[in-house]
Write a structure and sequence with these properties.
By secondary structure, this protein is of the alpha/beta class. The protein contains 14 helices and eight strands. Helix 1 packs antiparallel against helix 2 (31-52), helix 6 packs parallel to helix 8 and helix 10 (227-234) packs across helix 11 (241-248).
Length: 319
């Protein structure tokens, strides 16, 4: 299926419009059919606005995972010229769920680290559905240090349900690899921009998600755990996903209230997949502005602000 449950009324209207257009193209021009198409198009637009202006946290989570939503590789190709991929962690293997390399965004050199879920079934298997193993995080860390060596800003693109939980990954030090990345990112002497384009799940996302600025697309999510897993743990019932999503507040608007998100990029009506080119341009524009701002900042001030930023997250009482 290429649409979600709450999109069904919109899809039904779009099908009616397509059927009428088909009849109009096959026969002579009919003014009544043409008027009916215009009426249905207006009704469809109004319905879409009504639905998308009142989305729940769970519905936003579903949109973040939409089967037609563009993935990281498409974003990289659209925002970066001359991107050259770099492979391997120089220790164990090359994890295909993490894409790393060097490129340019409007003539500004950048190092890109991105999580890729894949599009086709074969590619999804190859990319492990965006679930990264320790060697992927170690590849990312190698690229981070390379960026620091040559004073190149880093852009990380986040889109993962979480780190891979398999036995082999645990044996090879999954938690250590994630912790090591966080430790490295905290003191890396280059600007770091984090971009969430879809699903930012758990420590798997945070391992490349610590930086100086967090940008999220309007219908993306960022959370410590998936709504399904949260439902199973807290309610002992996998059917409480909607309540779990609402309780966690995983959407950009809710996260901005906590001071976690710097920029929210508005998506086209209906979501990213409805007009990718428009969204690509917005992403490119915001990244360029952020890169210029952060590059002009003194490195010591940059590191100080980065640490202050993460120390300020959360609420606590001193005893």
């Amino acid at each position: 299926m290429d649409f979600l449950d709450f999109e069904k009324p919109i899809v039904e209207l779009e099908k009616q419009i397509d059927d009428l257009r088909h009849n109009l193209s096959e026969e002579h021009v009919d003014v009544e059919i043409d008027d009916e198409i215009k009426r249905l198009e207006k009704k469809c637009e109004e319905l879409t606005k009504k639905i998308f202006n009142n989305l729940s946290e769970w519905q936003i989570a579903q949109l973040a995972r939409h089967p037609l939503r563009p993935k990281s590789l498409e974003v990289i190709k659209s925002i970066s010229e001359d991107f050259q991929e770099l492979h391997g962690d120089r220790m164990y293997a090359d994890d295909s769920s993490i894409i790393t390399g060097i490129g340019k965004v409007k003539d500004l050199p950048v190092m890109i680290i991105a999580q890729e879920k894949g599009v086709s079934t074969k590619e999804k298997m190859h990319r492990n559905f965006g679930m990264t193993k320790p060697e992927g995080y170690r590849k990312a860390m190698r690229i981070m240090k390379l960026a620091e060596k040559f004073s190149i800003p880093i852009i990380t693109i986040i889109d993962t349900p979480g780190a891979y939980p398999g036995i082999g990954a645990e044996e090879r030090g999954q938690s250590e690899a994630i912790a090591r990345n966080l430790f490295t990112l905290a003191s890396l002497k280059v600007p770091i921009i984090n971009l969430v384009i879809g699903e930012g799940g758990s420590g798997g996302a945070l391992a490349i998600g610590m930086g100086d600025e967090l940008i999220m697309l309007q219908y993306s999510i960022y959370s410590v755990i998936s709504p399904e897993a949260c439902s199973s743990i807290l309610w002992r019932n996998p059917d409480e996903t909607e309540a779990a999503a609402d309780a966690m507040g995983i959407s950009p608007s809710r996260l901005r209230q906590l001071g976690l998100v710097d920029i929210i990029i508005e998506e086209p009506l209906g979501g990213f997949h409805k007009n990718p080119k428009e969204t690509f341009l917005q992403i490119r524009g915001h990244l360029t502005e952020s890169l210029i701002t952060l590059k002009n900042k003194n490195i010591d001030d940059l590191l100080l602000d980065r640490r202050k930023r993460f120390k300020a997250i959360g609420q606590f009482n001193e005893i």
